[in-house]
Amino acid sequence: MRKAIFLDRDGTLNDDPGYLSRPEQMALLPGVGEGLRALVQGGFILVVVSNQSGVGRGLIPQGALTQIHQRLQDLLVPYGVVIEHFELCIHRPEAECACRKPKPKLILDAAQNLGIQLSASYMVGDKLSDIEAGQAAGCKGSLLVRTGEGRRTEKSWDRLQMPQFIGDSLVETAAWILGQEEFLSG
Ligand SMILES: [Mg+2]
Ligand SMILES: [Zn+2]
């Protein structure tokens, strides 16, 4: 079994212009390359779990998503990092599909298909729906980053179960995860 970091995309890995639809709009947030590199060195595989309702709404051509994700991989090459898999919900919220976060299905499906042990894996995102999906999937930790919508999410938190950690950036969040691992392994 492998261990993974499940990553929200927009607002967590990249700037979120709203319905990002062209590869040239894809830009990494500060610290993302360094954070992902540290996590991969720590033995985690990287899986993006993302709601892309812009496809279902007709705002993002489905073929563009492939190009956008290739652009993301290209931006990560200098860090020696590859996203192992993209698990996406392309449905509109009104469709009430089974996969849109906060439902855990994107995470559960990826875990099943890639042989990932959820109890050894973490979810990282900038919205409540990311944290809820990680918690519902049974991840070891669900962590918030103060990028994208993260600060707003933190201020408006109204749930009992808090994220285990809130980091200013992905690199800070990665350091916390790796510190946990070190602590647990003694
Ligand atoms: Mg997001
Ligand atoms: Zn869906």
Describe the structure.
The structure is a single chain. This protein is α/β, with parallel strands linked by helices and 186 residues long. It has a single domain, classed as Rossmann fold. It is 38% helix and 16% strand. The chain is built from seven helices and six strands; from the N terminus they run E-H-E-H-H-E-H-E-H-E-H-E-H. Strands 3-2-1-4-5-6 form a six-stranded parallel beta sheet, sandwiched between helices. Helix 5 links the parallel strand 4 and strand 5. The longest helix is centred in the middle third of the chain and has 15 residues, at 62-76. The chain is globular and about 45 Å long. 41% of the residues are buried. The mean pLDDT is 96. Bound molecules: magnesium ion and zinc ion (ZN).
Structural key phrases:
186 residues; alpha/beta; Rossmann fold; six-stranded parallel beta sheet; 38% helix; globular; binds magnesium ion; binds zinc ion
